[in-house]
Amino acid sequence: MPRSARDIQLIELKDTISKLNELIMTQTKSMDSLQKTIEDLRQELSNKQAEVDYLKAKLFGSSSEKLKSPFPGQMNLFEEMPDDRIPEMIEPEIIDVSAHKRERKPKATYDEMFDNLPHRQVLLNTLTDEEKNCPVCGTQMVPIGTETVRTELVFHPAYLERVDYMATTYECPVCKDSLEPQFVKEEGASPLVPHSYVSSGLAAHVMYGKFINALPYYRQEKDFKNQFGVTIGRGTMAHWTIYCAGNYFLPMVGYFHRLLTGRKFVAADETPIQVLKEADRRPQSKSYVWLFRSGDDGLNPIIIYQYHPTRNGDAAAKFFQGSAAGTYINVDGYAGYNKLKDFKRCCCYAHIRRYFLEAIPKGKEKDYTDPAVQGLLYCNKLFEYERGYREKGLSYKQIYNRRLKDQKPVVEAFLSWINKQEAPNGSRLSRALTYAKNQQDYMMTYLEDGHCSISNNLSENSIRPVTVGRRNWLFCDTTDGADASMMVYSLLETARANGLNPQKYLEYLLEARPNKNMSDEELENMTPWNPKVQECCVNKS
Questions:
Q1: Which of 226, 259, 261, 362 has the fewest CB atoms nearer than 10 Å to its CB?
Q2: DSSP designation for 446
Q3: pLDDT tens, 258-289?
Q4: End residue of a domain, out of 404, 431, 455
Q5: How far is CA 444 from the centre of its chain?
């Protein structure tokens, strides 16, 4: 049926309206997409700015992780927050941390600072006979007492001495003219390193220089030349270390290993290292130093370092093979430690705290509504309790009981708070929350025993000598050198942790020369905590 002009016009208008609606919908979607893109770019810009602020603070700011506050204690900080942001967090507490006022430690006297040094007195004699006469009557004055007017530390440079050990040959005077003349010659002790002039003291000095003072062999080579006028090559020093480690240190470190795997409280950490000559690997490949040590168990500290070509958690599993099920271990968030199936893993609250500290936006340090600040304060609260326990000198049993009463509610509230938080992807707050959420299964483990630590600071402090030394000596040349270096580190740091002079202890071991045929009882007599070793190797005048 033919349509009227009016109908045709109406149909065209409807088509136009439909097309306009489609166009509007398309533009709306486009605008929404653009708006989302703008928001994403704004968030990315915000993340980048936060990263720039963080890097500036790292580069130019204080290295301390302490958050400055106008309040004397963390309790006040929590009181500034709305109640709905801190679920069941604050209750009247027994420990009033704010009551502990830290007084400045008095400056040490010379007697306290230098009590282990040789001490002599020098009597001044600068007055002439004329000056000793009385200015009134001219009578010669007599001494009535002395007093110290100044103190100096006098440096006596070390020196090298060549020592030739002479062997006497004896002949039988009766048989000398016979067909079988008889001789006997003194043999003496074999050299520390075959066909080498190195002594126990020199080897200990070289190893102490590299692994305690972070002085690479090439610098020591220059120092020997400049100070003493003798040439001792860096390759020679490296050979000494490798030989002594393989022949004398290995049995001792093996004994430490057996003792450590029998402990109930342990800790671990790892850090990269570069080894140039590894089989089937490029020189630029990243290898690792693994640190295993005793925890806060009240027993003699044991610290062991091992070189491994990878960061695979099998290294930790192999090291602790034979340890009892239920051993507590303090570690960071690295998933490789999950291979310790029968261990009870304790998280490191210092790492959790550090993530939240780094997530605080610039200028928001005192904004207690900021989620990063709130997360930091939860951690601070736990550390304040721990500090209070240590200051009061509580026993491990008392710490266990106080943790259940004081800290368990805080940890529970912290876990509840973590699961309620959201943060933009890619932000530092998102990283902090992700790290904390990944540690949820281990955040309450330390409450099970007072010996457990709230952080892995023991391991971090113990691995620091390697990280500091690495900045100077940069790499190990061979895997043998890496293994030897780790054994030397193990002995030096274990000695230091037990209050010994590490160089003296190393020299003591090189004189005693432990070997693989020695029993554990014999090796025990050479440990840093043995009374005789303590007497020989402590710092004393």
A1: 226
A2: G
A3: 999 999 999 999 998 888 878 878 877 888 99
A4: 455
A5: 23
